[in-house]
Amino acid sequence: MAIFPQTRTAEPLLPRDAWTGTPRDAWTGPRPVVRRLPSLRHIGPNWYASVMGTAIVASAGAALPVDVPGLRGACTVAWALSAVLLAVVLAARAGHWLHHRDQARAHLLDPAVAPFYGCLAMALLAVGGATLTVGVDVIGVRAALAVDVVLFAVGTVVGLVAAVVVPYLMVVRHRPAPGTASPVWLLPLVAPMVSASQGALLVPHLAAGQGREALLLACYAMFGLSLLATLVVLPLVFARLVHHGPLPLALTPTLFLVLGPLGQSTTAVNQLADAAPGAVAGPYASAFGAFAVLYGVPVMGFALLWLALAAAMTIRATRDGMGFAMTWWAFTFPVGTCVTGAAGLARHTGLDALTWLAVALYVFLVVAWAVAGARTARGVVSGALTAAPVPPGAATARTR
After folding, report:
1. 105 exposed, middle or buried (CB, 10 Å; 0-12, 13-18, 19+)?
2. Rounded Cα gap, residues 344 and 294, in angstroms
3. Which residues neighbour 367 within 8 Å (Cβ) at sequence distance 6 or greater?
4. Is 65 within 8 Å of 124 (Cβ atoms)?
């Protein structure tokens, strides 16, 4: 008696139809379409840029020193969309850390990805600020203030941690090669500057006294922290461009990231100058008001110079075949900070030229946001943006 049952030659293991069990190769009818949810494995911290870019459309529109019919309503829609996007991306990133911890750790140890952790802080801060300036029309002052306080506190802590941890990892673990400096390096350093500008909105809501003054001066401290760190990194970025040529096509839009600390710092000094009266003594409040103009005008001039340079490099990259990537969101938030910076200068100087500059930049911002948003939605639906990145060599071979 055989110990093992008799075996027979098995038929080839063909894929079988999920409904009938018929081998797939023999099935001649219509095949059901299987739709898969987007994979979370390759959703990195750079996805927070879409939240930032949407929130700044609302905040910048509300800051414009012009009255445009319907603009406030459109800004409210943008704010609501940014809040929804924040919730969606936070959930996706939580799933990423829960189910793909190896990839999450690899992101932290990747010098090209780790700086994007600064986007988490800026997304929280941007949505919080938009809630207090625009969302207040929908949810009321009390609720808007509560939301902003929570998002400001969490965003500031995350931003300060990123401003320390990411440079630490770059020195100790990343060790980037010479000539690889990128505008992306600025992302964790700009987050405290966003806290400085958003914190100015909360200063008037504190009771007069030590608390109000402490928050104002803390915002100035974060302004200085971010500004001086930017002055350290920015020469490295420009030296890389001069000595090693243009950035790779997909990274070319990141040149607009340099506008972030420039526009955000101009926004910060103007908003802090607005908040200074009642928080510090009269002479200091007047000095802060003068500093807003004396600092903001030259920096805005340099921002326009860099905007022209970045635009020229982007046109060149487009002619060379630059395709869509998530880096296109760099066209939104940094430009939006220049809108709020120019609007703040217009408010303090009364110059119509600055008002029209803010309007022109805002038009650019809206167009860039619409294009980036549409292309992102298309990439998510098709799965192209959630698929594994294509190795550079394979991408080059495929395009030939």
Report:
1. exposed
2. 13
3. none
4. no
Nearest to 55 by CA among 339, 380, 248, 276: 339
> What is the dihedral sign for C-alpha 88, 90, 94, 100?
positive
Q: In 58-72, which positions are buried (b, 16+ CB within 10 angstroms) versus exposed (e)?
A: bbbbbbbbeeeeeee
CA pair distance 365, 60, nearest whole angstrom: 9
Residue type, 49: A
- Annotate the chain with three-state secondary structure: CCCCCCCCCCCCCCCECCCCCCEHHHCCCCCCCCCCCCCCCCCCHHHHHHHHHHHHHHHHHHHCCCCCCCHHHHHHHHHHHHHHHHHHHHHHHHHHHHHCHHHHHHHHCCCCCHHHHHHHHHHHHHHHHHHHHHHHHHHCHHHHHHHHHHHHHHHHHHHHHHHHHHHHHHHHHHCCCCCCCCHHHHHHHHHHHHHHHHHHHHHHHCCCCHHHHHHHHHHHHHHHHHHHHHHHHHHHHHHHHHHHCCCCHHHHHHHHHHHHHHHHHHHHHHHHHHHCECCECHHHHHHHHHHHHHHHHHHHHHHHHHHHHHHHHHHHHHHCCCCCCHHHHHHCHHHHHHHHHHHHHHHHHCCHHHHHHHHHHHHHHHHHHHHHHHHHHHHHHHCCCCCCCCCHHHHHHHHC
Contact assessment for residue 335 and residue 364, using Cβ atoms and an 8 Å cutoff: yes
**From CA 70, how far away is CA 270, in angstroms rounded?**
26
**What is the gyration radius of the CA atoms in the chain, in angstroms?**
25
Query: Are 253 and 324 within 8 A, CB to CB?
Result: no
Q: Which amino acid is at 356?
A: W
- Residue ranges for the chain with pLDDT beneath 70: 1-38, 388-400
Write the CA distances from 34 to 31, 124, 145, integer angstroms. 9, 35, 45
Q: Say if CB 166 and CB 114 are below 8 A apart.
A: yes
pLDDT of residue 2: 40
In the chain, the amino acid numbered 293 is: V
Distance from C-alpha of 41 to C-alpha of 44, rounded to nearest angstrom: 8
pLDDT confidence of residue 37 = 47
Question: Do the beta carbons of residue 254 and residue 184 sit within 8 Å?
Answer: yes
**Measured distance CA(294)–CA(300) in Å, rounded:** 11
pTM > 0.70: yes
- The token duo for 36 is 């898969």
